[in-house]
Design brief:
The chain has helices at 6-17, 23-30, 34-47, 50-53, 61-74, 78-85, 90-103, 135-164. The chain is mainly alpha-helical.
Length: 172
């Protein structure tokens, strides 16, 4: 089964909390694993209905660090920590932990995703023009003249080649 709606999650939690069915029966009925139902129950017990209504959230690096510190200090599992902090997935916390271990605090900073926006072209800062008569100015002038010379040589070669080609007349 694809995504499970908020109503289905609430019904599953209520069915379990009322004691009518086991987690295994509920999981089979909905088409999810027992661990998922267990996580829903745990999150519901900690945060109530709001735990299922929360949409996507972008977490700051400081918040991620606080969650990781709490988890390390208290020794709670990522599942319990996710339920306590109302984070949608314990896997997200494990991912934060791995990133922190590899890259430190900077790895927890969220990076902007997607293509960069097209901004109007701003004034580009050009290199400061060298002073008249300086070595840099003279070298730049030599480079420009060499490019012009090369262009004129290619143009001359092209003109000579066209003169050698026989002229074709148009016939009607």
């Amino acid at each position: 089964m694809g995504k499970v709606s908020v109503e289905q999650r609430l019904q599953a939690v209520q069915r379990y909390l009322n004691g009518y069915e086991t987690m295994i029966e509920i999981a089979k009925d909905i088409g999810v694993t027992v661990q998922v139902v267990s996580e829903w129950v745990r999150r519901y017990q900690k945060n109530g209905v709001e735990t299922f209504l929360k949409s996507y959230t972008r977490y700051s690096a400081d918040y991620k660090m606080n969650v990781l510190n709490y988890m390390n200090e208290t020794g709670t599992s990522s599942t319990d920590t996710a339920a306590l902090f109302n984070i949608s997935s314990p896997g997200m916390i494990r991912n934060w932990k791995l990133k922190f271990e590899v890259g430190g605090y900077d790895a927890l900073v969220s990076k902007k995703k997607g293509r960069p926006s097209m901004k109007k072209e701003t004034k580009r800062t050009t290199k400061s023009t060298p002073a008249e008569g300086s070595v840099e100015a003279l070298e730049a002038r030599i480079k420009q003249l060499e490019m012009e010379n090369a262009y004129l040589k290619k143009l001359n070669t092209l003109v000579q080649m066209q003169e050698k080609l026989p002229i074709k007349s148009k016939r009607k």
